[in-house]
Amino acid sequence: MSAENLTVVRPLGIAHSVHEDPLAQFLSGQLTERTKKAYYADLCEFFNGDRIGPDDVRAVTFADIIEYRNTLASLGRKRTTINRKLSSLKAFFKMMIAAGVIDKNPADSALVRGYRVDDTVSGKALQKNDLQRILDQAAEEPDDLRRSRDLAVLHLLTFAGLRRSELAGMDWDDLGQEGVFRILRLPDTKSGVAQDVKLQPIVLQYLQAYRETLEAMNYPLTGKAFISLSRNDSHGQPITPQSINLIVKRYALQAGVTRHVTAHTFRHTCCTLSIEGGAKPQQAQAHLRHKDLKTTMRYYENRERLTDNASDYIHIKSS
Questions:
Q1: Is the CB of residue 273 less than 8 Å from the CB of residue 161?
Q2: Amino acid 72: pLDDT
Q3: Quick one: 215 exposed, middle or buried, by C-beta within 10 A (0-12, 13-18, 19+)?
Q4: What pLDDT is attached to residue 122?
Q5: What does pLDDT average to in each consecutive run of 10 residues of the chain (319 residues)?
Q6: Looking at beta carbons, which pairs linking 226-229 to residues 24 or more positions away fall under 8 Å?
Q7: Which of 18, 46, 50, 277 has the maximum number of C-beta atoms within 10 A of its C-beta?
Q8: What per-residue confidence (pLDDT) applies to 15?
């Protein structure tokens, strides 16, 4: 049950019985391929491979989970990563209880404590002045296409609270209309269910400017909205989620924002600014598409879905 030298030996599969192949049966119950892959990687790491039988499941004790947690910490894994892996184990063993394989969950929170996530690793919200400095810095980018793309990216992150994978996967055809409201349809989300996000006029303004710049430079206006502008073979190809993080970090660094900033920081910022502006927590929960209000409230740092939307309450200066 080591966190090192993991070798994946077979692709994801679906078993006919949890007693034949607990891992495959557990994965078959997940809604999205992304969730399956995340669980698969975490469980294979813990069990040191993907050949997991009922006896392997029964052999695990809470002491094994604690040792695994401590090993991850000694390897320098982030607290958020460790907590996510513990959650994967907890979900897996919960299903094993339901299937009658085991009686108790060795990863239960009462037995195995996770790590309290401090401000430096949790991606907490940006201060309003830091956010404005980042947006102002992007507005000074001399390259027209890069500037228009990055301003559209940053405003989508700020007002729509998108995950970086959702933004990278955005198609031009995903932009739509719901009554008098402009929305972004997300066909592939973490929940596995297609969802709509309201788009504010300021976001539409920057998306339109980006689209017009693409058109003026004879780039195609179909398929993925955001493209790579790297000077290599990826130029013109769909942008990757990692590239979105790099865009955010670049402008934060140029703006002199010293704290650690990622694309997910903007999701926290969207939540915090909307509630500070007067949105109800339930509105922020709906806008960010959180299953549990507790998640939304963890995003918020003490500080009618479309008709009265969380993003309506965010007010910042237009660059």
A1: no
A2: 87
A3: exposed
A4: 41
A5: 44 51 87 85 90 91 89 84 89 92 89 60 74 96 97 96 92 94 83 80 97 96 94 91 94 91 91 86 85 71 60 80
A6: 226/149, 226/152, 226/153, 226/167, 226/168, 226/170, 227/149, 229/143, 229/145, 229/146, 229/149
A7: 46
A8: 40
pLDDT of residue 151: 98
The reported pLDDT for the residue numbered 120 is 41
Mind listing the domains of the chain with CATH numbers? 1-117 (1.10.150), 128-313 (1.10.443.10)
227 within 8 A of 238, measured Cβ to Cβ: yes
pLDDT of residue 301: 54
The pair phi, psi for residue 171, each rounded to 5°, is -100, 155
Q: What is the C-alpha separation between 319 and 306, in angstroms, rounded? A: 25
- Residue type (1 letter), 6: L
Q: What is the pLDDT of residue 19?
A: 67
